[in-house]
Structure formats: structure tokens, C-alpha cells
Amino acid sequence: MITPLTEKTDYSCRVFRYEDEEGVKRLIKNAFANFLDGEFWDWKYKLNPCFDPSLLMIAEKNGEVIGCNHWLLKNFKLSPSLETKAVLGADIAVNPECRGQGVGKALLRSLRSSEVMRTETPSIIYMFAASSLAETFHTPAGGYIPAPDKTAFYFKILNWKKVEKRMHLLNEQIKAGAFKNKLLNLELKVLFKVSHAPPLYFCMSEKGVTISKEGQNWDRNADIVIVSDVATLQKVGAKKKRLWKLFKAVFTRKLKIKGRLKKLVTFYKNVWILEEIFSSEIL
Asked: Which of 92, 136, 172, 217 lies at a 20 to 30 A Cα distance from 207?
């Protein structure tokens, strides 16, 4: 889809092509430098199970990517028994030199009228946006309606700053020899595949823990693969009756754990490492 040029604009909007990737990465890095230093394209986009290239709109000027807007199509649970299709609007980025020319509004309007939106017909289009921009941008361009605080509840699933801080502290303790006996001969690679979220790849060893957010052949290289959803992981992670909740989740197939028996035993013995990194406030 291409939005035709008008007398007032010298740019056009079209659907993302993979040759646009480097240009999009530069835009995102510039606009969202405070989140993972802007380095999250692979994790949030390409590796995301909800990623649909046709829902990533590009603004182009003289062959250069000057803006992008990415939407995620997913299932939205309104209640335990009611689910509908919904779109999460995310990551509007415009080249600083091209701001104030209506690029962001053009991207929003192009996505709303895209072929995917006409085909999938989602019931809800939602986003978490700065309230200061609601009257001048999100409402007139995208048709968003601010939700009253008393009816809009959400929680942060993953806080990367906290995760990285906890991992750094844990690695410092490991380096100082605090867990020398517990980590003896540890070598374990764990892949988390959570529904509607990008995968996470943990590498645990005697030297410490690293988390990878981009890579290849994860399924083949991982010792343990955990497939589940956020709600189930939260229940299993609760301190009370954790073992029983784990067995129940596995038995009901809400949590799938794949790996050789020896590695599974090693994982269970060292699950305290993940507890140190993640808490109920984070996951």
C-alpha cells in the first residue's frame, strides 16, 4: 500500500520491506534511546510471534526512511470466557528533521486503512501513550479515546532496567565467590517462549548469567525450552505451593517444559537463579 503524495507533502507512506530494516533500526535507536539504548529491533519485531511486516508502515522521502509505525495484532482477553482480536499500536518514530510535517499522522491513518485491518477487522485498537499528546495527535489522527483511570488497568510484564540491574548484582556476587558451591559445573541454556512476547534465552554457568535478546538456532541449542503464557508463569512463580502449581500447569499443558531428564534436574536445582533475577514485581 502506498499513500499518494499531496501538494503539501514530499513523502509517501507504504508497507515495510526488509530492505528498510537498517533505516528503521536507526529511527528506533534515535527515538527510543532510553529503552535498551534503542537496540531492540530483533527482540521486539523480527522475533516477536505477533510481528506482521504488513502492519509496519514506513514513511519515505527521496528513497530514505523518515518515519515508521508498528502495530501488533493479537488476541485480547476481555474476560476469562470472552476473547477478541485487537491491535496494539506501538513505536511511532519520525526523523527529527522531518517532524511537524504530519508524518506521524500519515503513518497512523495509513495503518488504519491498511489491507490487514480491513481483512482482520479487530474490535479494539489500543495503545499506551503520553496523555500530553492525546488532544493534538493520538485522538485526531488515530481516533483514540482516552480511557478513564478507573476502567483501565495494566501492569508491566517486563522491566528491563530492573532485570539488568539484578543480573549485574547477581554476577558480581558470583564473581566474588558467594555461590561457589551452588554453581559447581553448571552449564545450562534455557529458552523461554511466552505467548505474544519475544523469546528470551538464558545462559547460566559458573561465571554468571547472560540474557540474549537476539540470535539464531535457539531451539536447537537450548538445553531447556519452556513454553507458556504470562498468567501461568505468574501463578507458578508465586511462593506458596509453587511445586504443586508447577505440576498442575504441566499436567494441564498450560506449561510445557522440554529437555533431557538430566538437564531438567539441573534446571530445577538452579531455578533460584531466575528467582534472583525476576521477582513478582517484574514477571
From this structure: 217
